[in-house]
Write a structure and sequence with these properties.
Layout lengths: L1 H30 L13 H11 L15 H4 L26 H30 L6 H39 L11 H14 L5 H26 L1
InterPro entries: Tim23-like
Subcellular location: Membrane
Keywords: Membrane, Transmembrane, Transmembrane helix
């Protein structure tokens, strides 16, 4: 085991030495000098790209069939395309619109549900203690837990449904590129919140539906305005 580790370390050192020696030879051949030309490595992007283009691709040394080092696996570390490595550089995926629908919906729904449970549970605790039928500790604790569970579950479910509706409506607006037709940059979330409130109270009648839509738009507008102030 020790001999194998020493052999791998020695082969890896030979590999690094081969890369440095080949780079030095390429630099001497391109510049017509017998020494390393440091001027090629200025902090200038154009000069570096010109040097890389003139140097050409590196090749992997052949250590023989008995080598246990996978050169194709470690070649991308040194900017060399091995036998199994892709020829092009890898880049992280980036979406200019930010997080996708699933990530955004999961975040909003989870935070809304958790916030509803905490807020509703806190209100239930106060109501349970206040409306306890007896002053005994067991009775008051039972009333507290019942009220907290009832209020917390209802508030969490309601806010979770609202968050799901809002995320879906906002995704539809983004897919339709609705921001191109509105003059204000933050108008799409406000419109989505208003539509969410109206959809949530659609079966309660016209007046409650309009009131819920107005409340949703006002709350989201205040949130967007506050976020803009905090960024200043």
């Amino acid at each position: 085991m020790y001999d194998s580790a020493v052999s791998q370390s020695h082969l890896f050192s030979l590999f690094l030495a081969h890369i440095l020696r080949e780079r030095a030879n390429m630099s001497r051949n391109n510049n017509g000098t017998n020494g390393w030309n440091d001027t090629e490595f200025k902090n200038d992007e154009s000069s570096f790209e010109a040097f890389a283009a003139s140097s050409g691709p590196l090749t992997l040394p052949d250590f023989g069939g008995n080598s246990q080092i996978d050169l194709g696996a470690i070649a991308p570390v040194f900017g060399i395309a091995g036998t199994t490595a892709p020829s092009a550089a890898d880049y992280l995926e980036y979406d200019a619109r930010g997080r996708g629908f699933h990530e955004r919906a999961t975040h909003i729904i989870g935070m809304s549900y958790f916030g509803g449970i905490l807020g509703g549970g806190a209100i239930g605790v106060v109501e349970g203690i206040r409306n306890a039928p007896s002053s005994k500790l067991k009775v008051r604790l039972n009333s507290l837990f019942n009220a907290a569970g009832h209020r917390g579950s209802r508030a969490g479910n309601a806010l979770g449904i609202l968050a799901l509706m809002y995320s879906s409506i906002q995704e539809l607006a983004d897919t339709a590129e609705l921001e191109r037709f509105v003059p204000v940059d933050k108008a799409v979330p406000v419109l989505a919140a208003g539509a969410t409130g109206m959809l949530y109270k659609a079966t309660a009648g016209t007046r409650p539906m309009v009131m819920a839509g107005a409340i949703g738009a006002v709350v989201m507008g205040a949130f967007q305005f506050g976020s803009s102030l905090l960024r200043l």
